[in-house]
Amino acid sequence: MKISIFGTGYVGLVSGACLADVGHNVLCMDVDAQKIDRLNQGELPIWEPGLDTLVARNVEEGRLSFSSDVEHAVQHADIQFIAVGTPPDEDGSADLKYVIAVAESIARHMDRYKVIINKSTVPVGTADKVQKAVEQILENRNAKIYFDIVSNPEFLKEGAAIADFLKPDRIIVGTGSPRAQALMKELYEPFNRNHERTQFMDVRSAELTKYAANAMLATKISFMNELANLAERLGADIEEVRKGISSDPRIGFHFNYPGCGYGGSCFPKDVQALERTAAQIGYDAQLLKAVEAVNNRQKTILFSKLAKHFGDAPDSLAGKTIAVWGLAFKPNTDDMREAPSRVLIEALWEAGAKVQAFDPVAMNEARRIYGMRQDFHLAEDKYSALNYADALVICTEWQQFRAPDFDEIATRMPSKLIIDGRNLFQPDRLKTLGWTYVSIGREI
Ligand SMILES: NC(=O)C1=CN([C@@H]2O[C@H](COP(=O)(O)OP(=O)(O)OC[C@H]3O[C@@H](n4cnc5c(N)ncnc54)[C@H](O)[C@@H]3O)[C@@H](O)[C@H]2O)C=CC1
Ligand SMILES: O=C(O)[C@H]1O[C@H](OP(=O)(O)OP(=O)(O)OC[C@H]2O[C@@H](n3ccc(=O)[nH]c3=O)[C@H](O)[C@@H]2O)[C@H](O)[C@@H](O)[C@@H]1O
């Protein structure tokens, strides 16, 4: 089938490459002409494992192409995906201007039936707004063209995006139109060979399902972080508690890891947006507010633990050099949006400390965000980040941080102080080796 996708970010590009890989003919369109130029030269705008080869193969085999020409993208296919950003507005609600802009562009250029599929994460009721925006333009054009609006939220995770898209737990499709339903069934047919993964429902339920999933996952994390903070004050070990509760299948082992707070471009904004949706209809979403508040506090915990170690006086960190391992908001991505590392680093600068950081892939992103600064050194590798440092803080659980050479660390950083935001090591072992090891939910 022919497909056009508006937006070549994480969702648009991964969806485009995966849909092409199963045999569809996909045109990815973006208003960012530079991005499209880079894609046409074989360069990827994002770092996502496996995406470069997937894109290259499908481009070479003629199933995937890129364009910044709106009219061309509208003409290319009857299936039109919207996969643009929905960033938070000033009050935390989702800003729909990019979604509406795409809908309007489609309406301006369409000359036959289209199914307009929204893949961006949008509040309940957005499909109605998209419908009205398209109708208005068609009316202005005096064009009588039939179209359908479908909600098809995306559940992929950065760092595992291709596997998530190709083997989804479920495909949610919200539509009331039999014609659109038949097209969506055909489109996702290759993903349903073994068992039917597509769940059809009404549009509003599909829109809410996306926020429900992210809010539920964020709630699990904030719950564990709250419990971790309790555990360390009660002399318990959150890692024992986590394993203890996870073996109950009603609770499960997934997404129960305490840490230095959830980041990324989605959980923080989506919990906030759902809270705003609730407020707009006069409902006080107390649990969602608590999930967000707990997370905001958790993101400051590494700095607090560090400051506490150095005496908690206002100037206790001034002049210190702090090594930071991990800048991305999670492993296997270079994305630093809402990353806990940023809250730590900015607080360290505020306190007069110098930061020496290393991340396996997010160094360029860090350079782009912070530029050149006297108090920010991006190290060649994880060990050189430690030279002359007063402490090491771990923000992201990259695989290569899990079993470091502790002798090498001690040689470069004689202070032997580690503040671990991801609970990578056994406290007892490090204590025996003479380390001061402060982690999450295990001791104060
Ligand atoms: N990043 C993720 O892992 C996931 C994101 N989502 C949701 O998907 C949506 C997109 O997210 P990302 O891909 O991360 O965004 P992104 O910010 O990485 O990419 C959005 C792209 O849309 C382009 N764009 C903006 N206006 C446009 C227009 N009028 N026509 C064509 N292109 C346009 C931008 O230039 C940009 O390249 C958001 O609603 C997000 O919440 C959903 C699941 C996973
Ligand atoms: O809507 C979205 O954009 C996506 O948001 C999340 O995906 P993502 O943000 O890429 O990454 P996650 O693996 O969910 O991690 C989010 C944050 O939670 C943290 N986390 C995760 C799991 C855990 O147990 N503990 C924990 O602190 C991670 O470190 C990270 O900062 C969801 O997992 C995806 O299903 C969803 O499609």
From TrEMBL:
NAD(+) binds at D30, K35, T86, T121, E158, K269, R337. This is UDP-glucose 6-dehydrogenase. The lineage of its organism: Bacteria, Pseudomonadati, Pseudomonadota, Betaproteobacteria, Burkholderiales. It catalyses: UDP-alpha-D-glucose + 2 NAD(+) + H2O = UDP-alpha-D-glucuronate + 2 NADH + 3 H(+). Belongs to the UDP-glucose/GDP-mannose dehydrogenase family. InterPro entries: 6-PGluconate_DH-like_C_sf (IPR008927), NAD(P)-bd_dom_sf (IPR036291), UDP-Glc/GDP-Man (IPR017476), UDP-Glc/GDP-Man_DH_C (IPR014027), UDP-Glc/GDP-Man_DH_C_sf (IPR036220), UDP-Glc/GDP-Man_DH_dimer (IPR014026), UDP-Glc/GDP-Man_DH_N (IPR001732), UDPglc_DH_bac (IPR028357). One of its GO terms (molecular function) is NAD binding. It holds the Pfam family UDPG_MGDP_dh_N. It comes from the Bacteria. The keyword Cell membrane does not apply. Keywords: NAD, Oxidoreductase. Catalyzes the conversion of UDP-glucose into UDP-glucuronate, one of the precursors of teichuronic acid. The gene is tuaD. The active site is at C266. Residues 323-427 form the UDP-glucose/GDP-mannose dehydrogenase C-terminal domain. GO terms for biological process: polysaccharide biosynthetic process; UDP-glucuronate biosynthetic process. Pathway: Nucleotide-sugar biosynthesis; UDP-alpha-D-glucuronate biosynthesis; UDP-alpha-D-glucuronate from UDP-alpha-D-glucose: step 1/1. Its EC number is 1.1.1.22. Substrate binds at F155, L156, K157, E158, K210, F255, N256, Y257, P258, G259, G263, K330. It is an enzyme of class 1 (oxidoreductase).
